[in-house]
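To assess whether the prediction recovers the assembly geometry, we first specified each molecular entity separately, as shown.
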Amino acid sequence: MSFPWAKHYEPTNPVAKFFDEKLPLPRLVYNAVGAGYPVPRNLSYMWNFGVLAGFCLMLQIVTGVVLAMHYAANDAVAFSSVEHIMRDVNWGWAMRYAHANGASAFFVVIYLHIFRGFFYSSYKAPREMIWLIGVVIFLLMMATAFMGYVLPWGQMSFWGAKVITGLFGAIPLVGESLQVWLLGGYAPDNAALNRFFSLHFLLPFVIAGCVILHIWALHIPGSSNPTGVEVKSESDTVPFHPYYTAKDGFGLGVFLLVYCAFLFFMPNALGHPDNYIPANPLSTPAHIVPEWYFWPFYAILRAFTFDFILPAKLWGVLAMFAAILVWFFLPWLDKSPVRSGSYRPLFRIFFWVLVVDMLILFWLGGAAAEEPYVMFSQLATAYYFLHFLVILPIISSIEKPKPLPFSITEAVLGSDEKSVMDNKSEPTA
Amino acid sequence: MATTTDTANTEVVAEDGVRRRDFIEIAAVSAAGVGGLFTVLPLVSQMAPSKDVLAESTTELDISALEPGQSIKAVFRKQPVFVRNLTPREIEAADAVDVGDLRDPQTLAERTQEGHENILVVMGVCTHLGCVPLGAAEGENKGEYGGYFCPCHGSHYDTAARIRKGPAPTNLEVPDYTITDTTLVIG
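The predicted structure of the complete assembly is given in tokenized form:
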């Protein structure tokens, strides 16, 4: 793990020495996010989002545990217990708004983190495992966020639960019994609410476990960088602390400014007013949409309106899940030996087309289920899969990449000789 | 935390050896530290009683029908409170005690309100470990001193609800209350 020139943890005082012998936790931290972790010297601000995602996870766990102290998972009182949090509990309004907007912030950060990975092909060897675990984390996040949104037991909660569990009803043969089993009833009720609360409490800790695996896998090859050229010598890296603790700290400050603007000045901007109406199993809200972070996938779900061998309902569900599952195959779909989009002129164009396509899907997922939005969704969905399954493999075989710099140091300083501090160190290929 | 190990960075060093960057580091980390401390405030405060709990912090009782020798068990802040109209014999027994011999010296007059010396209002919470003492209801064990008896660990209270025997350290607590005509307001 790590490079031969990584600094070694040397405890100086007797207490630190005692600790290091019995339980080398400070050593672990030192090697993970301290001076003992050499990181490419050229990381841009796009490399801030991993740390920010970790921060969001902690934020959600802390505020979530607090909310769980006051919330009651029972369909008779769940809605009023949320109002109790808002009105009676000291700082309850802050905790709830911090949690609700924290979910949105988490997804903003994670989408940027994922698209950073797309542009710089962070999924390529030797980092496939980091990517695969990352996609698993994203799926867990979606499940957790969905179940959390059900807990306030408002109209959107209830109908969200009904529609999303309805997805499983599309599965042939077992679908309907599966949906009834998931809900513990024929429609969302107390049984569903209780199990969603239990799982909503559990899954963040599963995510935390996967994050540990994600970081562990990351520390084997080390961080990627904007050139995509692997680290060759000590002059290509700087210690994580203080260089990237400072850079991440600054990024965290900017993030918190935006987050607090939402939290304190427009806490309901990303929510739906209908969720302040208690759940009513007899009346569906006129315009039912999931939270904004599900919109692209919701648009894909709704794009299938015609039966073709399989029923339309099943196609929609398959496509929605496939839209994320296709990410698992990225390391093998994109065969280009060049990682960074900066040196891939053709890939770069199609990357931005994908970004636009994704933004269109975001827009369509929040739009009403009527023409022309349905047709737009169909086109955007088609392009989405075309990008991953056809365009990407073709680009990687026909593209002529721009010449890569010899090393990170050369990319930064123009020449590798200028700054090589220690030429004796072995380059790790 | 914010110490820099970067010795190559020696561009601007003042005569006292303090660099501009040292100042920025200390300022940035301090701001983050103070901000972090402030976020602890709501996390701690949220566990304190919420507004609906605090709103329940007074109890009103009608004591017009309370005859001498009768008690009411009421609830104040989700805990039992005993209101007893003492009989002349109970008042006599309480006043006959030499206050200096008591573990928690208090006279009956100190534990009641002027003009209402016969109305004894105490929390039904044993001062030992919080069980509910017996003696308020008809037929319950009143202990060796004719007041209250805590069955958990055997504390005996007298007719003025003062601790006389057993492990409890202090007399049964008298909550703040006011009596107007026939209404008793606790809290």
